Amino acid sequence: MESIDDEQIILRRVPPTQSFLATCADRKGGGLRATSIAMATARDEDFLSCSLLSHTTPKQLLDQLQESGKDNNGWMVCMFLAKDVREAGFEIFYDPTPIDPGHCSISGEGGIAIPNKKLQKLAKRTRILTHEEIENPNQIV
Question: The pTM is what?
């Protein structure tokens, strides 16, 4: 299994904000970040699904929505580092899928499911990518 270095950039899709569900918020230092709602697992998920930038571009991540029959209009992509995951008390492991070669999963320590209320700490470390960064991932730092 491929190990994930602390400095590797992790990506996660962020759904569009709806009137009753804010998925992004202002970020300290400028820009936007994902909210804990955007970082939450679905009811049938034990792990938080993400992707490694080294294997999957932000544009590919959004295109995967269309490939699965979903409208990607309004969706965003946030980034954070693998060390952010570990410093927030979670584990991350490489878990490629046929659809996403860069897929990775975030779990609680020891591989246990993450309680969604604990994801706020990780959400505060995210940054929503700009349109330019999505189109040209070489600009991401």
Answer: 0.92
Residue recorded with tokens 């580092």: 81
What confidence tens digit (pLDDT) does each residue in 84-140 have? 999 998 999 999 999 999 999 998 877 777 766 778 889 999 999 999 999 999 888
Tell me the DSSP string of the chain.
Answer: -----TT-EEEEEEPPPBTTB--EEE-TTSSEEE-TTTTPPPTT-SSEEEEETTTS-HHHHHHHHHHTT---TT-EEEEEEHHHHHHTTEEEEE---SS-TTEEEEEEGGGPPPPGGGGHHHHTT-EEPPHHHHH-GGG--
| Dihedral (CA of 15, 16, 19, 23) sign | positive
Cβ–Cβ < 8 Å for 10, 80: yes
| Range with the poorest average pLDDT among 30-34, 49-53, 88-92, 114-118 | 114-118
